[in-house]
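Hi, does anyone understand the following?
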Amino acid sequence: MIVKERRKPDQMLALEALQRRANLRRDEIEKDLLLARAGFRGEEALNYHLQQIPPHSHILHDIRFAVDELFVQLDTLLLADNFITIIEVKNFTGTLTFDEERHQMIRTLDGKEEAFLDPLLQVRRQKNYLRKWLNAHQYTELPIETLIVISKPSTIIHTSNPSVIHSAYLPFKINELESKYAQRVLGQNELLRMGEELKQAHVPRKIDLLQKYKIKKEELRVGVHCSSCSTLPMLRGYGKWKCTYCGYVSADAHIESLRDYRLLVEESITNRELRWFLQIDSERIARSIIQSLNPVGKTKGRRYRLDFL
């Protein structure tokens, strides 16, 4: 049972928006976007194997919650009535060597070695935070297991730690844990409640990419972008937007561009900011778009919420 689905993360959506609209630091943005997409593909590849685990498990994807004023983020969390499993997905290629003595992971690729923070240390921290959250919500007796799942079948793993596995082995590993924890700890109603409480505790991560890449909002390329070929700007005519490059026509192409504004600039917008960002000269067109948004504040200086996009 999926309690919280896996969706394309806002960070990746924001990088895609910035790739469309940035004139500066494009190589760096492109590199970071490729890494984000690779990580997301690795997480998506896990979905097939998750379909083979016992159906009574409750699954939460990409969950982020606060513990002691700090945030913990989990790729995938499996909840069962007898134990919990934290799954951390890694999408590395090459050969991975886990050095538990020095707490690092070494990746060898094309004859070159590169060191990374030990994922085993990462999931240990995640387990500690989750235990604190569970204790605070009176779920004190559930055992917690952690797994490092390598999504690429061609990746070679050097470790004796049984919690590091290839994704294809995940259903079998969960079956092993089911046998290990045969005694039920929670009833079904408690399990449902715990899943919903974790889902409600989720706080999306907000990243200011303009600050990260030192780009001013005035330096962004503005206008309504074409969702077919990403060309900027589309032209408005006869109640529709038309791409001058590929000919794509849409009545609501401005919605995706307003989502770009939310991801890159702010979660609310004024009439003036909307007309600037979408490059709209007509007050009538701007007003018709504004009327579809949720207002915040009084008439003077009123802003319109974009957080639903």
